[in-house]
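Worked example (supplementary).
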Amino acid sequence: MIGYAVMFGFACLVLAFALNLWRLLRGPTVGDRIVALDTMVINAIALIVLTGIATNNAVSFEAALLLAMVGFIGTVAYCKFQLRGDIIE
Amino acid sequence: MIQPGLLGEILTSLLIVVGAIFALVGSWGLVRLPTLMERLHGPTKATTLGLGGMLLGSVAFFHLVQGVWSAQELLVSIFLFITAPISANMIAKVHLHGARLKEADSIESPAGKPPRPPGEGDWATYEAPHSDTPVATSEE
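After joint prediction of all chains, the assembly is encoded as:
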């Protein structure tokens, strides 16, 4: 039963990635692209979690934690660059 | 009498399916909604909640089915729930600046323009630091 649920989750996340990619390519403003990238990072964390369940392997959650931190810092850095023209003032 | 393993399987599957649907709805909102201020709702609320559901499902899987207690998922979800509003705030600031520079969407948002804050001042993100703000934020 868990196998079917994980398959369903993978299918939903693939569709979500396609929708995010559409918004990333379409724009129209830089803010939309930042939102799309942020959502893609969150979906990638979800993919890592589902892979951990599917392969019955708890090691991959360190990768999820690292990706969460790097994704947040990346989003804030993009926004900071848009707002101030510089990241570290 | 339901066995604990079966209960864990049902709980895990339910949490994964609900979380995946929430993540999909968040991305669908990102595509479907008209302007950036509305588009922020989908990823920041629905997708974060969906990921929280999947992480809880992972906790349930490793605890109830495998009999191993792992707390990293809770760390990831706490971190995401703390950082999602901050990144949403930063993106909203980017939108306000884009609107001021006339780079924002040409479509009028259904909710209209964001209201001016009460009192004399403007949005905090437009203002220069006041002379009475603490040194650490006002000095370069």
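Two points are worth noting when inspecting this output. Chain B has a mean pLDDT of 81. Residues 4-32 of chain B form the longest helix (29 residues).
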